[in-house]
Write a structure and sequence with these properties.
Layout lengths: L2 H23 L12 H37 L14 H6 L7 H8 L11 H6 L1
Helix pairs in contact: 1-2
Bound molecules: zinc ion.
The site of zinc ion has 8 residues, from helix 4.
């Protein structure tokens, strides 16, 4: 991969990282609200659950973005972490934080191997 390409992906990743970190810091929509109305409470519980699910998704995305930036720094970016083949530029353009080539991603989605490591949101924000 050329330096120009690396710089392009780095810029994309840094933008995404800032966007996600901001989103994760604005977490007041998960705060528990008290309401005397039972119907409102049900609705609020639903909204809270949705907010938590979004947070989960965003924090794992942030983890992937950070990982990709680290791989740019150490020179291993653009190589599939599972099979060590080069990841196609088309895939990196669409998902610059991807860890896997399309074949391995599909296998990971089917849980054929374990890729994730668990870090809490607070650890992520502190990093
Ligand atoms: Zn692969």
């Amino acid at each position: 991969m050329t330096q120009t390409e690396l710089n392009k992906y780095k810029a994309m990743l840094e933008t995404k990282q800032a966007e996600l970190a901001n989103g994760l810091r604005n977490r007041e929509d998960i705060a528990i609200e008290k309401t005397p109305d039972a119907l409102d409470e049900v609705q609020l519980a639903g909204e809270r659950e949705l907010a938590i699910r979004n947070l989960d998704r965003e924090s794992s995305l942030l983890r992937n973005v950070r990982g990709a930036l680290a791989r740019i720094a150490d020179g291993s970016y653009g190589v599939c972490l599972h099979c060590e083949e080069d990841i196609k530029a088309k895939r990196l353009d669409a998902v610059p934080w991807t860890k896997y080539c399309i074949r391995c991603q599909e296998a990971a989605d089917r849980h054929e191997f374990e890729g994730e490591n668990g870090e809490s949101i607070d650890e992520l924000l502190a990093a």
